[in-house]
Design a protein that fits this description.
Length: about 300
């Protein structure tokens, strides 16, 4: 059951007050945003936006429609749930998009526990980087996401889930990196392995390094890889280092295969986020969100 896409376009545009940004968040073109807004305005017979200098603002009609759009989105979710109950689809309908680090190292135990407690549901998990998960949510191809990127898409709601820290690591017997602590400018001397652009981990790394006045283009990045697993394997056979989630290296630290390199005056803490469309959750997605929040302690137990 799909509600009018034009209403979603309006809602995101009203949130951002920027058609270009709305287009980016909806993964459509800017002319498509303008076209959908214009169609609504033509239909109701009044403008929804006005230009004040270099910025957009909602008209009185736009503010009224924005208020009701929030209610309509919530009612749409509830209607979908109630219709699924009537036709017998209240079970077997949970589509998740989980970013790579979380999918591999954080959520597996909780998926097993949830499936054990609620066995009559079909659960499908798509593993993708955070940007792709957001895109799937916007397109209504998944119900719920768990992401690791920066929460900056205003058409989505981001609920902090668990805390994470990104640390610099290398193999334990790396002969070139044997000091206990390094200054942040020592990063320029270390051969590095980086995650691919678009991953939540990479977004955080880029942001934190820029905040620390580190020029990313001048770092010695010897290779870019698409997953934490491939990076860890590369580290084991080279004298390189990489920024990885602390959740991704629990086994390697325990087995003394990898070691953390302490960098003074650099902290890369973040949260993993439960992510969904604005308008609330109902049915199985809501049940799953509540379950994983209540059972965080099972992740490494």
């Amino acid at each position: 059951m799909d509600f009018d896409f034009r209403l979603k376009v309006f809602y995101v545009a009203a949130n951002t007050l920027n058609f270009t940004k709305a287009a980016s968040e909806l993964f459509i073109s800017q002319p498509a945003v303008s076209k959908n807004i214009q169609e609504i305005e033509n239909s109701i017979g009044t403008p929804l936006f006005e230009r004040l200098g270099n910025r957009l603002a909602l008209t009185s009609a736009g503010k009224m429609l924005y208020h009701h759009a929030q209610i309509i989105l919530e009612q749409y979710n509830q209607a979908t749930y109630e219709i699924n109950e009537i036709i017998g689809k209240q079970n077997g309908n949970l589509f998740l998009g989980i970013s790579t680090t979380i999918s591999q190292y954080v959520i597996p135990k909780l998926l097993v526990a949830f499936n054990f407690q609620f066995p009559k549901n079909e659960i499908r998990v798509i593993q993708a980087n955070s940007k792709r998960v957001e895109e799937l949510l916007i397109k209504n191809e998944i119900h719920l996401g768990i992401t690791e990127g920066l929460p900056d898409n205003r058409s989505l709601k981001f609920t902090p889930y668990i805390k994470d820290e990104i640390v610099l690591v290398t193999r334990s017997d790396n002969p070139e990196l044997d000091n206990d602590k390094y200054m942040i400018n020592d990063l320029y001397k270390i051969p590095l392995v980086f995650r691919e652009t678009g991953s939540g981990t990479r977004d955080i790394i880029d942001t934190k390094l820029k905040e620390a006045s580190i020029s990313i283009q001048h770092l010695n990045i010897v290779i870019t890889l698409s997953s934490s697993e491939s990076i860890k394997r590369y580290l084991k056979y080279s004298n390189t280092a990489a920024f990885l989630s602390i959740h991704a290296i629990q086994e390697e630290l325990k087995n003394q295969e990898l070691q953390i390199i302490e960098l003074e005056n650099l902290s890369m803490e973040r949260y993993f986020y439960i992510t969904h469309l604005v308008g609330g959750l109902t049915s199985l997605p809501l049940k799953f969100m509540n379950f994983i929040q209540q059972h965080k302690s099972k992740i490494y137990s």
